[in-house]
Design a protein that fits this description.
Blueprint (H helix, E strand, L loop, with lengths): L7 H6 L3 H9 L28 E2 L2 E2 L5 E8 L2 E9 L4 E9 L12 E2 L13 E2 L12 H4 L5 E5 L9 H7 L5 E5 H4 L2 H16 L4 E8 L4 E2 L3 E2 L3 E10 L4 E10 L14 H8 L20 H4 L1 H6 L18
Antiparallel strand pairs: 1-2, 3-4, 4-5, 5-10, 6-7, 8-9, 10-13, 11-12, 13-14
GO molecular function, one term: metal ion binding
Organism: Anabas testudineus (Climbing perch)
InterPro entries: DNA/RNA_non-sp_Endonuclease_sf, Endo_G_ENPP1-like_dom, ENDOD1, ENPP1-3/EXOG-like_nuc-like, His-Me_finger_sf
């Protein structure tokens, strides 16, 4: 049989009329997902409960809060709930698989589908001069050098080179005071990584988020008042689930400032609103009343975890 080459125009013209009609009336695919469960593999069980924002797996205020399956090179890397009004993430959730050392490009990226649902799901390089309508841009962070682009899913936690690159998207970052980001927050991340590597076989689930304030940079991007982070993993060594929580005020800090290890229950209490309970890991076996620093001397020593002094234990910290 002889093959005949046809131009694209001729091929188009030979399509049946019914197919042409279907193509012309097919609706544009909305590439923003509606449910966090559609971003599989990054949640321990059900999505977090965030009062007034994400309750019983449903978004409150869909025009403002968007679920992003953070995608790079056609592969989903982690999931973020993003606040398009404050232009910062509410939280990022991710699975730790044993972050290795090494470097990767840190050119900051943006989420094209937030600007137009017809755009590609893959994150793309940020235009350094563009002011985006629904998310922060590189230019926003250049107006105030006191703040770093603070990762929620840490660059150092990502496993592969492409995973590392994917963390450098501005939908995974908040304006974080430089001394806080490079001080107690960085030390906390290193200690949690130590726990996951040594006691959880290099695997665990994390949720990291930010509480907005009334401050902004460039009159556009909210400066969080507090950053918080939680982890939960199964420890084969201890033969049980272990978990802890951390939070700190996003302010200038002195050298040596420590971020203490707390229980999930303590964080839940602080982020709950009236009768609506915050939960990072709903319906799981993650312990609410114990933390690894106080309950496991070996973990405390091997990962150099400071223990919170009993004075003031349990006192409320103003998160606003």
């Amino acid at each position: 049989m002889k093959c005949v080459m046809m131009t694209p125009l001729k091929m188009w013209c030979l399509l049946p009329l019914t197919v042409l009609l279907l193509l012309s009336i097919s609706p544009t695919e909305n590439k923003l997902v509606e449910l966090m469960s559609q971003c599989k593999g990054f949640l321990l069980n059900k999505p977090p409960q965030v009062p007034g924002i994400l309750e019983n797996s449903k978004i409150k205020g869909k025009n403002r809060y968007k679920i992003i399956c953070q995608t790079y090179r056609d592969e989903k890397r982690f999931v973020t709930l993003y606040d398009t009004k404050n232009k910062i993430p509410v939280f990022s959730a991710y699975k730790y698989r044993g972050g290795e050392g090494g470097q990767a490009e840190r050119f900051w990226k943006i989420e094209p589908q937030l600007e137009n649902v017809e755009n590609d799901v893959n994150m793309e390089d940020c235009n350094i001069t563009t002011e985006y309508n629904n998310q922060a841009g590189n230019n926003d962070y250049q107006t105030d050098t006191r703040y770093d682009r603070g990762h929620l899913f840490p660059f150092s936690y990502a496993d592969t080179r492409d995973d590392k690159i994917s963390t450098c998207t501005l939908t995974n970052a908040v304006p974080q005071v430089a001394s806080f980001n490079q001080g107690s927050w960085r030390r906390m991340e290193e200690r949690v990584k130590c726990i996951l590597d040594k006691y959880c076989n290099g695997e665990g689930y994390l949720v990291t988020g930010a509480e907005p304030s009334k401050k902004t940079i460039n009159n556009r991007v909210n400066v969080p008042s507090v950053l918080w982070s939680t982890f939960c993993c199964y420890s084969g060594i201890l033969n049980k689930w272990i978990a802890s929580a951390y939070w700190g005020k996003n302010v200038q800090e002195l050298n040596g400032t420590q971020m203490y290890t707390r229980t999930l229950g303590e964080l839940y209490n602080k982020l709950s609103i009236r009768d609506k309970t915050f939960e990072a890991f709903p319906k799981t076996k993650c312990p609410l009343g114990e933390n690894v620093a106080e309950n496991y001397t070996e973990i405390k020593q091997k990962c150099s975890i400071p223990v919170y002094v009993p004075k003031g234990r349990g006192q409320r910290i103003d998160l606003k």
